[in-house]
Specification:
The protein is of the alpha/beta class. It contains 16 helices and 14 strands. The chain has a domain at 6-143 and 219-301 and 357-441: TIM Barrel (Alpha-Beta Barrel). Strands 1-2-3-4-9-10-11-14 form an eight-stranded parallel barrel, surrounded by four helices. A two-stranded antiparallel ribbon has the order 5-6. The chain has a two-stranded antiparallel ribbon with strand order 7-8. Helix 6 packs parallel to helix 7 (230-239), helix 7 packs across helix 8 (250-263) and helix 13 (367-381) crosses helix 14.
Length: 444
């Protein structure tokens, strides 16, 4: 049987997400991110295209490393202003039946008891269509915003996250029995106290409480994780069911995928980031791509990458090698241009890679060309699907749905209808955590 491609749209509740400067394009509507109709329209488009989900990124704090302050990020709308992604989900769920929603939330700054209730509520309201992208944070500005003098060290954040996950697993999976809600009108018993128990927190998370929510369709939201650093991959292999990677070459990604699959005890789906510029023909796509390039922002891309790596690129000489000293920021981004890179990266080379305002090289072409490129990634890098980052909204996703999806279906690599059931059921064939998953083992 041909491997079926998985597709998520990759977005953020903001003007500028990954491809910086695209908000300036006259057809771009991302400035409407504060309108619910903008998001419900997007959800309808994605469901029409049979997308598996909408992956909503988030970050706490502003990008203030480049030039020693936030001015470049503010000027270029580099993920600021930024609204809460969770509040969008009920509205989008109300106009769809199958589309999943992966939302990014950090383990570092919110008590697990409160977070577990919010996720269970969303899983109940959407009838099991919720995923959680687990992050630990990487911005010093976020740490200061939360009242900390300095950021928690990189690997220690993952140690905290292990305890955090083990705590929310207990709340989601060990507090309420599946049959705790009896709703017996005759006896007046809604839930049986004997089938509900208090659970304790793990490690640094002191807690003694019963979960406030009854069991939801998935109990545990589908678990995403995007860390590609050495410690991040270790964490992903323990916890993630879906892993999101970025990479500029298939061999590089294939190596990371093989390492992840070797470490994991449970099945994994791996998504790679992709940017697509498609039109009816290769020549028309090339024209569209050339048009888009006029609006790309190098300063915006540098502001984003400086914050991601903790390196102020405003201070670097154009041809000096990018330093590889470990820091407390996003170590996978640092490694990508230093220790894991086949060539020496400099600021000049970095700027040259910002084709559409980010380091992600776009796939440009007609529907057949784009389909060929995506299938090649699945074949050569052993990925299961793609997180498609936006360029000019909403036309980039409308074009993909109208032009590329039918070709993928004709090739037999993409579904022609949704399967029933919760999000995890659709991707893995079962609604609850795999029995070999850490979250199932730690509460059994």
């Amino acid at each position: 049987m041909t491997k079926q491609m998985l597709l998520n749209a990759f977005d953020m509740n903001t003007v500028g997400h990954i491809q910086h400067g695209m908000w300036r394009h006259p057809r771009d509507e991302s400035h409407r991110f504060g309108e619910l109709s903008y998001w419900t329209g997007l959800a309808r488009t994605l469901e029409r295209g049979l997308f598996d989900g909408l992956f909503l990124a988030d970050v706490l704090g502003v990008y203030d490393v480049y030039g020693g302050g936030p001015e470049a990020a503010i000027r270029n709308a580099v993920q600021v202003p930024l609204n809460d992604p969770m509040l969008l989900i009920p509205a989008m769920a109300s106009v769809t039946q199958h589309l999943g929603f992966g939302v990014t939330c950090t383990t570092t700054y919110e008590p697990p008891f409160l977070f577990a209730r919010r996720m269970s509520t969303l899983d109940a309201l959407t009838r099991g269509r919720i995923g959680w992208n687990i992050v630990t944070g990487y911005l010093d500005s976020a740490a200061r915003a939360m009242g900390l003098a300095v950021q928690v060290p990189h690997d220690e954040r993952y140690d905290w996250a292990d305890d955090y996950l083990d705590t929310v697993y207990r709340l989601w999976n060990a507090s309420w029995d599946d049959d705790a809600v009896v709703m017996d009108r005759a006896s007046g018993v809604f839930a049986d106290p004997a089938r509900i128990r208090r659970v304790q927190g793990v490690g640094r998370y002191a807690m003694d409480a019963m979960h406030l929510c009854a069991p939801t369709p998935q109990r545990t939201p589908l678990l995403y994780q995007a860390g590609a650093s050495t410690r991040g991959r270790q964490f992903a292999a323990q916890h993630a069911e879906c892993v999101f990677l970025n990479g500029t070459s298939k061999p590089q990604v294939a190596t990371l995928v093989a390492d992840l699959r070797a470490q994991a005890l449970h099945p994994l789906k791996v998504f790679v980031g992709a940017t697509v510029v498609v039109a009816a023909s290769d020549s028309e796509a090339a024209e569209k791509f050339a048009d888009y390039r006029h609006y790309a922002s190098v300063e915006g891309a540098l502001a984003h990458f400086s914050a991601s790596t903790g390196i102020d690129f405003a201070k670097l000489d154009m041809d000096a090698p990018i330093p590889s000293a470990p820091g407390q920021s996003n170590q996978s981004n640092v490694e990508a241009v230093t220790t894991r890179a086949a060539q020496v990266w400099t600021k000049r080379r970095l700027i040259d890679s910002f084709i559409l305002g980010s380091r992600q090289p776009p796939i440009v072409g007609g529907p057949q060309t784009v389909a060929d490129a995506l299938i090649a990634w699945m074949t050569e890098a052993d990925v299961d699907g793609f997180n498609l980052s936006r360029t000019v909204m909403p036309e980039c996703l409308e074009d993909f749905v109208n032009l590329v999806v039918p070709v993928l279906q004709e090739r037999g690599v993409f579904k022609t209808e949704y399967t029933e059931g919760p999000l995890r059921q659709k991707l893995f064939g079962h609604p609850r955590l795999h029995p070999d998953h850490r979250g199932a083992l730690r509460v059994s």
